[in-house]
Amino acid sequence: MASLPLLRQVLVPALVLLCLSPACAARRVSVAVYYETLCPFCSGFVVNDLARIFRNGLSSNVDLRLVPFGNGRVSPDGSMSCQHGEDECQLNAIEACVISVWPDAERHFPFIYCIEHLSLTRKWGAWQSCFHETGLPSQPVIDCYNSGYGRQVS
């Protein structure tokens, strides 16, 4: 994600301008973010930049689609490897399950933010604390992860 400064300089101001335009009253801006859970640049973007659309009240004008995949690779035998190791594959799948269980970004983004913040502070092993922090129940996500669905969609 080498163009992170460009994203910061262009994406957030563009969302603000689009959402202040008369056309925004009739439509929402679609934004898809493809990222790697343990990539420090991606985590920084989610925590420091993307979170602003929720803090500034712009989220009601945005159809946000988060895709936790990054540089994952699926081998011919069906196994998956991720650029930042097995922990990243696991967290990508967990985040994919959270998004699947609660498709509304207002609901799943706080959990994604929590994991990405832990990633920035190198404490991603404590990801289960995000259930307590966000008040979301863990069982639907654990069931999704154990079913293998999270790895299929991440």
From TrEMBL:
Keywords: Glycoprotein, Secreted, Signal. One of its GO terms (molecular function) is oxidoreductase activity, acting on a sulfur group of donors, disulfide as acceptor. The keyword Glycoprotein applies. The keyword Glycoprotein applies. GO terms for cellular component: extracellular region. InterPro entries: Interferon-induced_GILT (IPR004911). Transmembrane segments: none annotated. Belongs to the GILT family. This is Gamma-interferon-inducible lysosomal thiol reductase. The lineage of its organism: Eukaryota, Viridiplantae, Streptophyta, Embryophyta, Tracheophyta.
